[in-house]
């Protein structure tokens, strides 16, 4: 529905005509003659028929080599395999081959085309060396040699001179020679198979051990191109101003990729660049696409990610694709540092009920309080168990229900005056859900308040609760506990997201335990709270026992009062104190923790108990009880 509009953006600074047809390539799909491939979101070409390769991803291990589907990024390749050559982490394997981008190994291999084989389409399907057209699969050899890395540090000019001098009378047999600018400065990094070291000794003077590195698009402005090696010094000014840059060299040329926070002028022979954005600063890099729960909820449709928001905003359709729960995963990966949350909140329209029945609990305000909101109201059993747990740790914890409009909370515009009034005297809130923990952070815009999540607190105290188990870490939890990283599943179950937008729910979350109680309830996965929180006493039975004890004490007191009634002039306060003492004895052996739980739980008692005339007096005793 929206894909044609998305793919009409052929660069961050240019929008072309709408294609008449988009083909999402999969195995066996017929490719019409004259089709134009699209490998990355931030670069492409106009065409009547676009073959979208972005979803055609995956890697097959073939022993000494791998078969990589063309839409797979180099980042995915590098995370799993050590291969002979690689490209920019943000680029796809197919796109690198199609556009002739720089790759690691330039000094030895010359180009990616020389080292790989493909399954491709160039009017007909073919296999072998790349011969133009659309690469569908790329076959890359695994690295079978031990590679040594060395580096040289210095100023840009001296390093340029050194590299050029290496090619004066010979060819240095390094696998790769690159000038790299990063946050530590400028350096030359070279690599070679260990067996060649004897041939390279004349070049290794003043070098130190180095480390592998990868090209990446690291900033809002990006430049890629090729110059003759003799023109290397024409890049000196750009390197000095760049945040990150890689210049790979060979005997006759230098190919560069330069990332900068500012627009750079005078760079020679730019083949591809990301500069001015006509999409409110979005550079279409697609980083947000890979982490966006809303896109995954909609079947990995890029239209429902922040990238879709920015492209479709120019067509007046942003409100149709932006109804998410503003989790903020996108912000952490955006190289352009866009304020995506603010932009999304202009269009989100959550569908949670504005008025929800409050949980059947009394507020008991303390300096530290377990908190529920309409988002978490149904989880009041966890609130009671959390109060029990925290009280056992020696904390005097109360309870508060913040009856705030949940949709306004998600949109970032709750009634802060109301909330500030509700929180007078409260210094810390402990939430039951990651959702409340995330959205209530807005309180800090108006006052200093500590906000913690009980799930994180539980695992900090007892990480063994999830030992050996795969742990689901929800997308809204920004401060996760320290546990076995290999067992963590960072993902969005979409259970709460579906409650927010009613656009469907995934059912493929595979985890032994979750840190999200809402996901636990929705998908039947045990939560950390289930595993770690203590069970509370049977409060109804405890209440009955207290009631029976008080009533028996009252009967005995009545005998005393009847006897005293023969005496004239006895002070009424004496009689009242006798009655209150009888009631107090009913609570004398009840722990303070249980007294708090009883008071909070009072609205949940059976009607016949709540109808008792003693309840108000009992509440007074409970409220006035001290640790």
TrEMBL record:
Where are the coiled-coil regions?
A: none
Annotated Gene3D superfamilies: 3.30.70.20
Q: Which domain of life is it from?
A: Archaea
- Provide the GO MF annotations for this entry: oxidoreductase activity
Pfam families per the UniProt record, alphabetical: Fer4_8
Matching entries from InterPro entries are given as: 4Fe4S_Fe-S-bd, 4Fe4S_Fe_S_CS
- The residue ranges of the 4Fe-4S ferredoxin-type domain are 270-302, 314-347
User: Which protein are we looking at?
Assistant: 4Fe-4S ferredoxin-type domain-containing protein
Q: Which organism is it from?
A: Sulfuracidifex tepidarius
**Lineage of source species:** Archaea, Thermoproteota, Thermoprotei, Sulfolobales, Sulfolobaceae
């Amino acid at each position: 529905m929206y894909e044609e509009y998305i793919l009409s953006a052929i660069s961050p600074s240019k929008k072309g005509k709408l294609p008449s047809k988009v083909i999402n390539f999969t195995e066996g799909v017929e490719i019409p003659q004259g089709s134009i491939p699209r490998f990355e979101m931030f670069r492409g070409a106009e065409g009547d028929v676009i073959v979208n390769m972005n979803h055609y991803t995956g890697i097959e291990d073939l022993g000494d080599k791998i078969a990589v589907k063309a839409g797979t990024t180099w980042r995915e390749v590098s995370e799993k395999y050590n291969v002979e050559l690689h490209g920019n982490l943000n680029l796809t394997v197919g796109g690198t081959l199609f556009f002739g981008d720089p790759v690691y190994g330039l000094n030895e291999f010359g180009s990616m085309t020389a080292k790989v084989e493909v399954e491709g389409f160039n009017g007909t399907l073919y296999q072998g060396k790349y011969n133009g057209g659309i690469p569908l699969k790329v076959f890359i050899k695994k690295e079978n040699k031990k590679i040594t890395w060395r580096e040289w540090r210095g100023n840009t000019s001296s390093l340029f001179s050194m590299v050029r001098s290496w090619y004066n009378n010979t060819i240095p047999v390094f696998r790769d020679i690159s000038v790299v600018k990063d946050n530590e400065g400028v350096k030359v990094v070279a690599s070679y198979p260990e067996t060649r070291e004897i041939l390279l000794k004349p070049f290794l003077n003043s070098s130190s051990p180095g480390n592998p590195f990868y090209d990446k698009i690291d900033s809002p402005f990006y430049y890629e191109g090729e110059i003759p090696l003799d023109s290397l010094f024409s890049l000196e000014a750009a390197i000095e101003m760049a945040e990150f840059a890689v210049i790979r060299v060979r005997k006759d040329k230098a190919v560069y990729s330069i990332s900068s926070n500012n627009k750079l002028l005078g760079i020679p022979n730019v083949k591809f660049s990301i500069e001015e954005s006509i999409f409110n600063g979005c550079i279409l890099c697609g980083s947000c696409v890979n982490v966006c729960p809303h896109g995954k909820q909609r079947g990995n449709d890029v239209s429902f990610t922040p990238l879709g928001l920015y492209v479709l905003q120019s067509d007046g359709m942003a409100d149709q694709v932006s109804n998410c729960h503003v989790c903020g995963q996108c912000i952490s990966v955006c190289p352009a540092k866009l304020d995506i949350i603010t932009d999304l909140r202009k269009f989100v329209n959550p569908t949670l009920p504005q008025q929800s029945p409050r949980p059947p609990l009394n507020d008991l305000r303390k300096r530290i309080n377990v908190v529920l909101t309409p988002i978490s109201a149904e989880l009041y059993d966890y609130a009671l168990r959390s109060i029990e747990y925290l009280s056992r740790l020696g904390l005097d914890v109360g309870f508060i229900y913040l009856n705030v409009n949940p949709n306004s909370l998600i949109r970032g515009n709750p009634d802060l005056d109301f909330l500030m009034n509700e929180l007078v005297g409260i210094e810390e809130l402990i939430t039951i859900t990651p959702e409340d923990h995330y959205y209530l952070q807005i309180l800090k815009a108006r006052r200093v308040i500590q906000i913690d999540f009980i799930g994180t607190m539980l695992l900090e105290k007892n990480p063994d609760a999830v030992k050996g188990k795969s742990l689901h870490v929800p997308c809204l939890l920004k401060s996760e506990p320290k546990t076995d990283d290999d067992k963590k599943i960072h993902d969005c179950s979409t259970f709460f997201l579906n409650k927010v937008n009613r656009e469907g729910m995934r059912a493929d979350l595979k985890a032994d335990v979750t840190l999200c109680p809402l996901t636990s309830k929705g998908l039947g996965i045990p939560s950390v709270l289930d595993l770690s929180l203590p069970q509370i006493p049977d409060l109804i039975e405890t209440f009955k026992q207290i009631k029976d004890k008080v009533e028996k004490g009252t009967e005995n007191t009545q005998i005393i009062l009847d006897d005293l009634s023969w005496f004239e002039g006895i002070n009424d306060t004496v009689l009242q104190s006798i009655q209150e003492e009888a009631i107090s004895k009913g609570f004398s052996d009840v722990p303070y923790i249980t007294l708090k739980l009883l008071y909070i739980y009072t609205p949940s008692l059976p009607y016949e108990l709540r109808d008792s005339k003693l309840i108000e007096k009992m509440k007074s005793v409970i409220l006035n009880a001290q640790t």
